[in-house]
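hiii, so i know i said id send this last week but things got crazy w the move. better late than never?? heres the sequnce for the chain we talked about at the cafe, plus the structure i predicted for it. fair warning i was half asleep when i ran it
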Amino acid sequence: MGMLIAVKFPREKGKKVNLSRFLGKFHKFRPSLLVEVPDEEAGHVLNILTRNKCEVLILKPAFRDVEKRILEEMLSLIKRIRAGEEEPSALGEFAVEKIAAFSMKNLSEEVSDLLHLAVEFEENPSILILNQLEREAKNLLEIIKKG
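okay and structure toks below
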């Protein structure tokens, strides 16, 4: 699959016709609905949509915001595990919840790999895996923040 691009044409009629003709060589489809959901509600909304067997694709700008939030939550959870405030199983549960909510096709390979590593950490709580998770999550978060 390629990149999903939502297009809103300008108001001028002539431009709309030209742009429509230009895009005509690409596969077009009409989504049932294109909706903007606040970041804080995205997980809940995606859970409901996937539970109801809706096909969901996250557009790239929102996708990066979602990944940024996942990484920030993961780093916070790692910090609480190190402090003894959370059990190692919490990290695996977090990862499974995010995989279910967002689906791997909506997440970058790097974030998907980190979530799988978090599941592995739950099965084998090793300080080496925890250190790797923290290091890679911090690096990836910096890359996302730089744009």
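btw The chain has a mean pLDDT of 82. thought thatd interest u
miss u guys!!
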